[in-house]
Amino acid sequence: MQSLIVYNSLSKKKEVFQPLIAGQVKMYCCGPTVYDLVHVGNFRGAIFYNFVRHWLEYLGYKVTFVYNYTDVDDKIIRRARDEKVSCESVSEKYIQEFEKDFFALGLKRHDHNPRVTNHIDEIISMIQVLIEKKIAYVVDGEVLYSINAFNGYGKLSGRNPEELIAGARVDIDQRKRNPLDFALWKPSKEEEPSWPSPWGPGRPGWHIECSAMVRKILGDEIDIHGGGSDLIFPHHENEIAQSEGCTGHILSRYWIHNNMFTFSGQKMSKSLGNVWKAREFLEEYNAEIFKYMVLSVHYRSLSEFSETTADLAIKALARVYSFLALASHLIKESEGESATHEDVDSRIKNHWEKIESALNDDFGTPEAFAQMFEVVREFNQQFRRGMKLSPKLKGAIQSYLAFMQRLGSIFSLFQQNPHQFLMELDDRLLKKKNLQRGEIDRLVFERQKIREAKDFKKADELRVQLASLGIQVADTPQGSFWEVQK
């Protein structure tokens, strides 16, 4: 198997993955600010990095995955003020709501979910070191990071500080040595969360929080730091400056950034009114559909998120789950022992090697799915409802099922009961067509009786009628089966 290659946002090129300690991976990803239900764009990262973790584990690494909650922030303060409750109650509520969505998606629990408010001591300690090193300075109870004191500021984003200053559309704060200097510690206003510090009561700035939590849990250097591409600047740029300025060590060997969702070609944003909450999507659609929409597009590409792309995901998943349903049905109905089918096993092995190659090339999920559908196509060419299985054919089906189960465990997909999942898909599509399942069942049963009476002309007329409604009918020795055309 080839080595894992990842695109490193820091070097702007693909690199062979080599962790600090052989066989171990320390990974940190920026989680949500917990003041509201999380939108689908935030979950693109959660789903993708869940897969990254699974793939690293498949490759034999022991992964320690840290995913934080930002539980002190201006947005939380505003929500608490509007609802006349404490900031703690707001953040606690929305951590629980996030985890409800996270586990509804069938994602694996992280090893650590640190909260900012539990790491204030580490944050203060880190700021003190930066002040002692003259990389940070105090003005009126506020601690500011001096970007001029850090050689290499801008190396992640590729932005030139002088050009940033020239293009800035903000009022120049005369207290700052450089207009781009940013807050490490901010004096708290009245009725805001506050902690005692050497510089007076206050609260941490946004960027220092992640630096302190990374260092506390994973150490001075980590292997992978992940997040959305919108975090490259200023958040991750400032994390590098803080952490490396404090410790003298490289913060992360590899920086991985997933791209954004677009909605009708536009970036999802509140100002455009096109924000789609993950909870809303999961209630209207299905967790499998959401995960497939994320993983079927390469993580560094913009991804269109709309009803159209959801419908495409439904069609793709219907192919997989129809394969799983038929394979499971044939195995259940067969008798006797199974035998090895060397030709099928060889073809599956070849497809799996191509999947490994795709995923080892910067997590190429689209090519992996293409190989998966080749396997589904090969299965459909060989098997149909009602056929009798020889021991070799039974062994072949078991190999096909094992292939899909292995792939599904890596993607956190294809974990649902196939028959139930296809029923849910059909019910959703029937609802869109204003059709009732009972009426379709009645027409299919009526047609089956007509076929048994050998009135094939009338049976064909009913088939045409059903097809006009978007219903496909399959006739087998065990009876007639139908599904909504996808």
Number of domains: 3
Which radius of gyration do the C-alpha atoms yield?
27 Å
Instruction: Report the CATH topology name of the largest domain.
Output: Rossmann fold
Largest sheet: 4 strands, parallel
Strand content: 5-15%
The CATH architecture of the largest domain: 3-Layer(aba) Sandwich
How many helix segments? 16
What does this structure look like?
The protein contains 16 helices and 15 strands. It has 3 domains: 18-284, Rossmann fold, CATH 3.40.50; 315-420, Four Helix Bundle (Hemerythrin (Met), subunit A) (Up-down Bundle), CATH 1.20.120; 433-484, no CATH class. By secondary structure, the chain is an alpha/beta fold. The strands form 5 sheets. It has a 4-stranded parallel β-sheet, with helices on both faces. Strand 9, helix 7 (232-247) and strand 10 form a beta-alpha-beta unit.
How would you summarize what this structure contains?
This protein is α/β, with parallel strands linked by helices and 486 residues long. It is 50% helix and 14% strand. It folds into 3 domains: 18-284, Rossmann fold (3-Layer(aba) Sandwich), CATH 3.40.50; 315-420, Four Helix Bundle (Hemerythrin (Met), subunit A) (Up-down Bundle), CATH 1.20.120; 433-484, no CATH class.
